[in-house]
Amino acid sequence: MVTNRSSVDVRARPGSPKGRGRAAERRGYAVPNEQRDRRRPGGPDRPSAGGGTAVAERRGGRFRQRMRTTLDLIRANPTGRVTLKILISVAGAIVVTVGIALIPLPGPGWLLVIAGLGIWAVEFHWARRLLAFTRRHVHRWTRWATTRPLPVRLALGSVGLVFVGTVVWLSLKYSLGIDVVAQALHYLATH
Predict the structure, then answer these.
(1) Number of CB atoms found within 10 A of residue 96's CB
(2) Measured on CA atoms in the order 108, 113, 114, 118, is the torsion positive or negative?
(3) CA torsion sign, 12 to 130 to 61 to 81?
(4) CB-CB contact of 56 with 30 (8 Å)
(5) Where are the alpha helices (DSSP H) in the chain?
(6) Fewest CB atoms within 10 Å of the CB: 2, 32, 43, 162?
(7) Residues 6 or more apart from 139 whose CB is under 8 A from it?
(8) Which residues pair with 32 in a beta bridge?
């Protein structure tokens, strides 16, 4: 069966203008209404609901726009794309490894793990999804906790402090060999 080029669905080709616009919308980037109107059955003559962009732009600022443009230029070159993937992989792995090592110790362990996921999210879709999942659940937990009455919030804070204190005590005891509780009890018994 011979297929005429005009009968091929342009939307299926990722490199076509229509495919790029749809892919950009899925990723959350802004797509001008006139580009979006070309995909509609009514065409560009059909009135749009509003001016500006079809999807509100998630990220603003000059620095982020420059970074996005620079990364796109690097990705345009096959060697640059591979080099960028390797650099992002190594940098994210280092930050995540240090974060995992700091989780049982007092310090910003989980913060570093999330920062490493943010580095990986620049290049890897799975990291973007995991980071979005983490953000969504942290926001949901925060929203839930702030809507509780004051006694419940105090109880949650107390449980959190006990947990952090236990982690600090165990990490000092098994990492550095310092048993703070035993020393405190010995000090109270002798004085």
Answers:
(1) 19
(2) positive
(3) negative
(4) yes
(5) 17-27, 33-37, 62-76, 78-102, 109-121, 125-146, 150-171, 180-190
(6) 2
(7) none
(8) 53
Residue that the structure tokens 């070309």 belong to = 38
Segment 67-122, tens digit of pLDDT = 888 888 888 888 888 999 999 999 999 998 888 888 766 668 788 888 999 999 98
What distance in Å separates the CA atoms of residue 110 and residue 104, rounded to the nearest whole number?
A: 10
Q: Which two tokens stand for residue 45?
A: 């003559």
107: left (phi over 0), alpha (psi -120 to 50) or beta: left
Assigned token pair, 11: 């939307």
This prediction has a pTM of 0.48
What SS3 class is residue 3?
Answer: coil
* Token reading at 100: 């995992």
Question: Nearest-CA neighbor of 121 among 80, 55, 77, 67?
Answer: 67
Give DSSP secondary structure letters for 21-52.
Answer: HHHHHHHT---BHHHHHTTSTT-TTSPPSSSS
Tens-digit pLDDT profile for residues 114-153? 899 999 998 899 999 999 998 898 889 888 888 889 898 8
- State both tokens at 13: 């080709």
Of 112, 119, 118, whose CA–CA distance to 98 is shortest?
112
Question: Largest alpha-carbon pair distance within the chain?
Answer: 96
Count of Cβ atoms closer than 10 Å to residue 122 Cβ: 17
